[in-house]
């Protein structure tokens, strides 16, 4: 444990599995107490909390569908009640139900927008209001995606939400700077999680994706911990706000 986040109180959405889970536990390794939001996977959330507590930190799991605006205030209020406040907020929850464009069901499009974009907006807003109330600044980090910068044939509903999350961090960096709140985006490349496991079950497609990555492999959820801790840390990133950091093994720049 490095203590970069010693004594900090962290909230992470979508933290029962994948990137969110890895980030929540990773922040605890660096000294933070952590509140994890989850939708339906109570077992995953509870096991994440157990790992956080095994590291000697306080953990709490709070259920809520991020697509519902009221879940944002419920999550933040619950975190304040259990941890005493919120210093770092990580917006991670997201979905990507792959589907073709021409016959995109309205409900798939709208659900993706509500979870990824609306959920991010109201969660970030609730966290920011708490940080302003506390008066000590803070750090807000949103998981955007390489998909904010490139298109995807079966992601016409998804890529706009990730571009929106990136833009949200840029605008909130301006809006919240006067309160000492830093807002930054992380842009993961292809990370092996539940969101893409079915798509990458195709061995040929997985090999193609791996060949596109200069570092020679797809990402793991744990690859997102270091960049998150960097942006969360006042010591390391105290003058970083409105930034976007690609974490993709070099995939974006590999055009050959």
Automatic annotation (TrEMBL):
Q: Which PANTHER family match?
A: (3R)-3-HYDROXYACYL-COA DEHYDROGENASE, SHORT-CHAIN DEHYDROGENASES/REDUCTASES FAMILY MEMBER
> Superkingdom of the source?
Bacteria
* Organism from which the protein derives: Stakelama saccharophila
Gene3D superfamilies in alphabetical order: NAD(P)-binding Rossmann-like Domain (3.40.50.720)
Record key words, sorted: Oxidoreductase
The UniProt entry's sequence similarity note says:
Belongs to the short-chain dehydrogenases/reductases (SDR) family.
Pfam families named among the record's database cross-references: adh_short_C2 (PF13561)
Q: What is this protein called?
A: SDR family NAD(P)-dependent oxidoreductase
